[in-house]
């Protein structure tokens, strides 16, 4: 993360600084929350965050989030510019068949694969976020 928190950050330049998929970079902090950006393509993993909601904003591309709710499964589609919050405790699986860039808000230290998850495939980085170089 930048040592100059009082300067603007161009998100397009920040996204251009890395290529790893499903491996978020921390671009800022707001109180006890990380502001993260990520490049994604393909499927993530079914997972849930027991103690926190998860906020998604699609910067580029299109994201789908499959949800396992009390009434059954459904999938929400998020085109560029759309935002969605997955409530705490809800199992979900993000995917982006054609790729996408995202902005996420999560409490600092939140693991990308949640508190409960399926086996993590090699293409998913189980991390609490990486510093933006």
- Low-confidence runs of at least 5 consecutive residues: none
Number of strands: 9
CATH C-level label:
Mainly Beta
Helix count from the secondary structure assignment: 1
Going by CATH, the architecture would be Sandwich
User: Whole-Å distance between the termini?
Assistant: 7 Å
Q: Helicity range of the residues?
A: under 10%
CATH topology: Jelly Rolls
CATH homologous superfamily, by name? Jelly Rolls
Strand content: over 45%
Write down the Rg: 14 Å
Question: Largest sheet at a glance?
Answer: 7 strands, mixed
Number of domains: 1
Q: Mean pLDDT score, rounded? A: 92
SSE run: HEEEEEEEEE
Based on secondary structure, the structural category is: mainly beta
Shape: globular
3D architecture notes:
The protein is mainly beta. It has one domain: Jelly Rolls (Sandwich), CATH 2.60.120.10. It is 5% helix and 51% strand. The protein contains one helix and nine strands. The strands form two sheets. Strands 1, 2, 4, 5, 6, 7 and 9 form a seven-stranded mixed sheet that branches. It has a two-stranded antiparallel sheet with strand order 3-8. Strand 4 and strand 5 form a beta hairpin. The protein is globular. The mean pLDDT is 92.
Which tags fit this structure?
1 helix, Jelly Rolls, mainly beta, 133 residues
Task: Provide the fold topology.
Elements: H1 11-16, E1 25-30, E2 33-43, E3 47-48, E4 54-69, E5 72-79, E6 83-86, E7 91-107, E8 116-117, E9 130-131
Parallel strand pairs: 1-9
Antiparallel strand pairs: 1-2, 2-7, 3-8, 4-5, 4-6, 4-7
């Amino acid at each position: 993360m930048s040592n100059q928190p009082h300067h603007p950050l161009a998100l397009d330049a920040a996204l251009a600084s890395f290529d790893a998929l499903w491996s978020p970079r921390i671009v800022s902090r707001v109180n006890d929350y990380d502001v993260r950006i990520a490049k994604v393509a393909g499927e993530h993993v079914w997972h849930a965050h027991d103690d926190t909601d998860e906020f998604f904003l699609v910067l580029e591309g299109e994201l789908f989030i499959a949800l396992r709710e009390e009434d059954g499964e459904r999938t929400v589609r998020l085109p560029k510019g759309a935002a969605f919050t997955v409530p705490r405790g809800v199992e979900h699986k993000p995917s982006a068949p054609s790729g996408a860039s995202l902005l996420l808000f999560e409490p600092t230290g939140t693991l990308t694969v949640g508190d409960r998850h399926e086996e993590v495939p090699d293409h998913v980085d189980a991390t609490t976020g990486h510093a933006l170089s």
